[in-house]
Amino acid sequence: MTTSLSRIHLDLIARQYLNTDFPLSRLKPRFSPVLPISLSAEGCGCLAEGLRPDCGQYGIPSRSSRYIFLRFSIRRCNPREPRLEPRKWKSGTTVRAVCARAVTQVVHTLPEGEPVIGVTSLGGEIYALKRKERDQVEVYDSATYSLQRVLTVPNARVFIDMTSCEHYRCAYISDRYGEYIHKLDVQAAAFTRWAVGDQPNGLSVNSSHNVLVTCFAVRIIKEFSSRGDLLRELTLPDDVIHPWHAIQTRDNEFVVCHGGIGDAVHRVCKMSADGRYIVHSHGGLRGSDHGQYDVPIRLAVDDGEFVFVVERENQRVRLLSPTLGHVRDIVSRDQLKWWPCRMCLDVQRRKLYIVENEYKENKATSGRVVVFSV
Q: pLDDT tens digits, residue range 89-123?
């Protein structure tokens, strides 16, 4: 493996993100085997985090926990090697290396058919939620992509999203007009449901294995136990209009995407643990430029707390840093056939499942799931 850290990049990062003129280029990072990465192009990166208090003597803010994106070049494409693990720089700064995904590639496409309104991975299988009266859930093998079985959800009305929980071995489906969450117990192959009390939209599962339900019209995140007990409700600020999806991070903050077709502001926000304050945000007025969104509709967060954002109208998937700084677009319009609207990140298999649907006269007519390597 060969790496080269640009001195110019490092020093620019120091001034822009750490508010210091201390020359980071004087520091020499060292790496050893721990975290697997697979990179195939320049413009990759890692994060430096957890700056130690004793770094204050170098002009770096003490007790800082900021993240900085470091650009470097790697010429190696083997997914098993090289492996990176950060050591300590000369300054005493502790560095953590995280792959920032140089290139995403399409590795498979599930069969086209009825519109797809949800996708999730569970127990080595891919669950695709289709908009039809019967056999709404199609289950595929994650390795061979072969169809394993189909499931019919009883008492279905209008489904809107899907997620899953490895801990309880179950999948959850939101029913917008019925105002229900349907729970699929995979081992028992049985469905149950509970009432939400508002129209549910995006779903996610937090580290406590509870279900987070984002209610689009009322700006509320509801947290339910796996049995359907309502644990709490969080009302989002007035300027977080029409939230589509919310994910809770390890430090109990929330990442929320919001902005409907008729709204002026479209953003991704990191909210405080009580949902009342915006800690970081990315976006603003609706648009297609570098710092803008047009219907950021679904989110995913990886182990390094990088944020993946599906933009429906701009037909792309963006990658943001843990503090919501833009890293790069990892799926472009050229890689998609239709409009992306749902997403699932399989961290273990390093796969990103993107739902895209064809629309005619503002109605979804066909759909499919595209599998990307990340």
A: 333 333 333 333 445 789 999 999 999 999 999 99
Buried b (16+ CB within 10 A) or exposed e, 141-176: ebeeeeeeeebebeebeebbbbbbbeebebbbbbbb
Distance CA 252, CA 257 (A): 16
Give the C-alpha separation, 249 to 209, whole Å: 12
Q: What is the DSSP letter of 364?
A: E
pLDDT tens column, 119-145: 999 999 999 999 988 889 999 999 999
Residue 11 has phi, psi (to 5 degrees) of -70, -35
The fourth-level CATH superfamily of domain 105-373 is TolB, C-terminal domain (2.120.10.30)
**In terms of pTM, does the model score above 0.85?**
no
Domain boundaries defined on the chain: 3-86, 105-373
- Indicate the SS3 state at residue 53: helix
Task: Locate 289 and state its tokens.
Answer: 């430029």
* Amino acid of residue 25: S
Does residue 237 have a cis bond before it (omega within 30 degrees)? no
Identify the H or E element spanning 268.
strand 265-271
Nearest alpha carbon to residue 102 among 327, 314, 321, 345: 327
The DSSP annotation for 191-241 comes to: EEEEE-SS----EEE-TTSPEEEEETTTTEEEEE-TT--EEEEEEPPTTS-
- Residue 120 CB neighbour total at 10 angstroms: 25
Quote the tokens at residue 26: 């004087």
CA distance 82 to 31: 10
Residues 6+ apart with CB under 8 A from 200: 160, 161, 174, 175, 176, 179, 180, 181, 213, 214, 215, 222
